[in-house]
Amino acid sequence: MKNITILFVFIFVVFSCSSIGQQKYASHQVRDGETVSSIANKYNVTVYEIYRLNPEAKGNLYPGLVLILPGGKSVPGGSEISADGKYILHTVAKGETLYSLSKKYNISESEIKRYNKHLYSAELRNGEIVKLPNTETVVVDETAKPAVTNRKHIVKPKETKYGLASMYGITIAELEMMNPGIEDGLQIGDIINVPDKSYAKDAVLEDSIFGFYEVKPKENLFRLTQRWDMTKAELITLNPALEDGLKSGMILKLPKSKLGSETAVTVNGGAIKLADNLTNRSTKNIALMLPFNLGKTEIDTADVRKSVIKKDRVMNIALDFYSGALMAIDSAKALGISSNLYVYDTQYARGDGKAGNDRKIENLINSNDFSKMNAVVGPLLTSNVEKASQLLKGRSIPVVSPIVPNVAMSSNMFQSRPDDEILKQEMLRYIKLQGKGKNIVVIADSKNQSIKNEVLAMYPDAKVVFPKSSDNGSYLRASDLTAKLSQTIDNWVILETNDIALISNVTTSLSTQISENRKITLMTTNKGSAYESDDVSNITLMKLNFHFPSVDRAYGAGQKSFIEAYERKYGYIPSSYAVRGYDITFDTLLRLAASESLYDAADAGYSTEYVENKFNYIQDPVSAGYFNTAAYILKYGQDLEEIVVEIPAESSSSLFLKD
């Protein structure tokens, strides 16, 4: 196993402002796909100048970030106004504070922080440039035709951009255009511009009952009433803004029973973008419990450097997970979410047995103040995370189990890794939705007869091939398999076994049956360790268009920014454990910033997706704990690339409750 190098770099950016009174400035809002270099070329400035004026952009450029750039027109008092008129760019003088700036410009301290996200966790520095809203001039894009801005709204707890858009009968784009700087979410107490006319008393949504839907282009009211089996009057009762007409981008409030899996706030795969729903800006306290085996509970930089030379697999997993978690803390900070990360060494040792390792967890929790924690991520191993959950249950502190799929559930347990039953059910759901019109052939050994029966319950006409037993494992005669395949319609062969010999036998036989007219797709509900054997050819699996369920996906082009940032920081490509550390920690922080607690976030039905993992927590009706039902269906593409297979939406998808 390669050595793991975790570098901790503390960068203090200092820049000169000696000519600040003469320099003019403009602003630029970063768009998707832009880089610092492309922005520098566009404005004929250097990358250094952008980083000098925007240190927060170094290694963390994201769509919606507003950059200060050279160029613009001056305003009285030494400050500058941006070229588009939206911002005042103020140079902080010695002795100035957030309070003095709020009085000088007649805006709240929270509003200053909203436009300068680093100020949620950093002090105001002499000589730095801060962005402030220019309240004297409202620049409007007339092509969008937003409502007239002549009223202020103070953001209340649990109000979101989507609730506000619904309340005032406007689109998200119009709300963001009227309030530059809210792209990354809202904070309680923010004062924002809104239309004069409102259609509801507040923008708070009863998450357990209602959801939001964003009207698509060319949709009309009749089509929507037909889709949701509602009358026009029922829709207008929930959305009084409809009395003034339906328009594209409008946010509608609807019962979740009508929406099903539809959602207004979607990104890849229908996952909710929590960055648009941030309402709880309080500092988050997160405990990270990992088996570093360093002989102490608190981890510091020197400890981690010394541990690099160790060759312990569990410790290496812990270090990788930890490195990803640190990246998540930085990403959350860029969104204005401040946090305190408390890292504890569980000192796991296999030789100490369950009782010995449980005592270490008990001593760790009893000797430290966990009452302030918003969530605990870890420990990694089954008995340890169960013990931590048991000890913290009385204080209702949520414990997120990071990597093990089967843990004893309790009311404060969040099992983040979908178990095998979830994966199986997701694959069966895909087969049910997409298998109509296919020639379905089931091959299942004696250990997997229940899956065969589930497929037959969905498709009674499915064909079954029964494996034969031998001293070297199970096998099929080629003629038995060939007789079940169709020449005219697509063949879906569902193989349920972890027997290497049978997998090799079936895949080899099927590969010889592929022709121009005969199409074959191989599937399984459980891609076990047998598929990693040298006796099973990946090239053959690729030719068979192999489909299987998975906890995670291989990151694609949309996630390269994280991978590149990680490589710059640590010097190598992140492992799957590092990515999981990032995804889980980032998701936990965003959920806490979008709700009052992880419990509220789960009850709200948030489905989220990040670099390689996605999360949709459902409460277990028996234990009252929460388990992740979000899984992927993957297939082998060209060059053995794992491609995500999109599953059509259906009502109550992914709600697989445990017995």
UniProtKB/TrEMBL annotation:
Report the residue ranges that make up the LysM domain in this protein: 26-69, 88-132, 151-194
* Listed InterPro entries: LysM (IPR018392), LysM_dom_sf (IPR036779), Peripla_BP_I (IPR028082)
Question: Which SMART domains does the entry mention?
Answer: LysM
Task: Name the coiled-coil region(s).
Answer: none
What PANTHER family has UniProt attached to this entry? Answer: LYSM DOMAIN-CONTAINING GPI-ANCHORED PROTEIN 2, MEMBRANE-BOUND LYTIC MUREIN TRANSGLYCOSYLASE D
- Name of the protein this chain belongs to: Amino acid/amide ABC transporter substrate-binding protein (HAAT family)
Q: Which species?
A: Leeuwenhoekiella polynyae
